[in-house]
Protein: Late competence protein comFC-like protein
Organism: Candidatus Kurthia intestinigallinarum
Amino acid sequence: MRCLLCDRVVEKIETWTGLFSRRQKWTTCASCMAKFERVSEQAYEGIRTIYVYNEAMRDWLHRLKFSQDAIIAHVFADEIKKLCSHYKKAVIVPIPMHPAKKRARTFAHMDVLLEAAGVRYTHLLEKTTTDTQSQKSRVERENSATLFTRNAIQLRKDTHLVLVDDIVTTGTTIRHAHEVLKRDGFTHIEVLVFISARK
């Protein structure tokens, strides 16, 4: 078995469950995983983050989003599955990608991350702009027009929702998504973001 990131051979002790599993087995070596830095202190109010945006995470995210290397979504699949399982009976709501961007990149990376982890999700939002927030200044982000609209999928307004995204910088994207759902009447919304741009 080879590491998804460096392609070195990794010896992995097989379990009985693994031997009879039909799922493809993926692994990442300890050396590569050690390069990822966990968040030591939450830097955003109301947003739970897991990893810091360092060089290793930058490279991983670039491969996933811009090199269409969907297979490396499996690097964090087990962890994402475990994180999402903590939200009992919640509906996982990924931040969507604009259809034009999805066509250009061939897949929506948040969907791929959740699917690799075997996490069920529901899209409640639609992206209204193809603008990239990372290319804007802080002032431009904070003054952005509404980035999302609510789609036609109906849920009870007391449904526990968990918004999930890959990375948070200023929090503008999450704030816009949260506001749209709140205006629609949802009262129990939590936020889980995999990567924090702040240390």
In short: The first strand starts at residue 48 and ends at 52. Residues 36-196 form a domain with the Rossmann fold fold (CATH 3.40.50). The chain has two domains: 1-34, 36-196. The longest helix spans residues 172-183.
